[in-house]
Amino acid sequence: MRLLLVEDDDHVAAALSAVLARHGFHVTHARSGEEALQALLPDTRAPFGVVLLDLGLPDQDGFEVCGRIRKRSTTPVIMVTARADVRSRIHGLNLGADDYVVKPYDTGELLARIHAVSRRAVPGEAESDDAAAGPAEPLRLGPMLIELPTRQVSVDGTPVPLTRKEFDLLALLAQRPGVVFRREQIISEVWRTSWEGTGRTLEVHIASLRSKLGLPALIETVRGVGYRLVAPAA
Ligand code: CA
Fold it and tell me: May I ask the CATH class of domain 135-229?
């Protein structure tokens, strides 16, 4: 798989490229936001399977680069940053990043996330999953309408843009309103991994969903267990 590594620190990039190459990735290195956007222009080679995007770049803010990548491509983006705060993470996911890794990270963690986002990005795979996951009828929950085949969500008729994982998470919880889903169960179904560090990512996605949908009480935290969707009043 081709991987675009956007990192201005040559030492970090060299070390990471070596690890990624050992795991079978064909790494292209970009040192700036502009180089990254150039590298993503279509050419005769196979498209990139994933972009690893450092947020601290010399020419542009990584968030801005992510937004610009998203405008021209659906390639999964994993943001890599030293900024650990939840607001930064939510901001990144709102701009269309597929995942978020905080430095210093464990290489195993990074590889697990690369595999997770690239698996989900395989064309066709998502559709067959959706078909098996539930009815084609839209799910109506109070003011919220979820259309599984087109992966569209609206609240009071206003479309709410969600990332792939946010949609998968919402669709999972919405299939059985009121039922508590265990954290491990959600992680295994939405992220297809049992890697326990994904719990932090789950929390960020829950926070992002609550905020984007404007329905903070929609997803209830069941302490020590997991989450459940509480059907909102119409
Ligand atoms: Ca940097």
Answer: mainly alpha
Question: Which class does domain 2-123 fall in?
Answer: alpha beta
CA of 57 to the centre of ligand 1 (A): 5
Strands 2-6 and 26-30: parallel
Ligand 1 mean position to 3 CA, how many Å?
A: 18
Q: Mean pLDDT per 10-residue run, the chain (234 residues)?
A: 95 94 95 94 86 92 90 87 76 80 85 83 44 60 88 93 92 87 85 70 91 91 90 67
Is the backbone peptide bond immediately before 76 cis, with ω within 30 degrees of 0?
no
Domain boundaries, given as residue ranges, for the chain: 2-123, 135-229
Ligand 1 centroid to residue 63 C-alpha, Å? 13
State the Cα torsion 124-129-135-139 to the nearest 10°. -90
Q: Which helix (H) or strand (E) segment is 182 a member of?
A: strand 181-182
Gap from CA of 194 to ligand 1 centroid (Å): 30
Rounded to the nearest angstrom, the distance between the alpha carbon of 54 and the centre of ligand 1 is 6
d(CA 216, CA 188): 24
Look at residues 138, 155, 140, 142 and name the one whose alpha carbon lies nearest to residue 234: 142
Model pLDDT for residues 45-58, shown as the tens digit of each residue: 888 999 999 988 99
pTM check: above 0.70: no
The secondary structure of 146-171 as a DSSP string is EETTTTEEEETTEE----HHHHHHHH
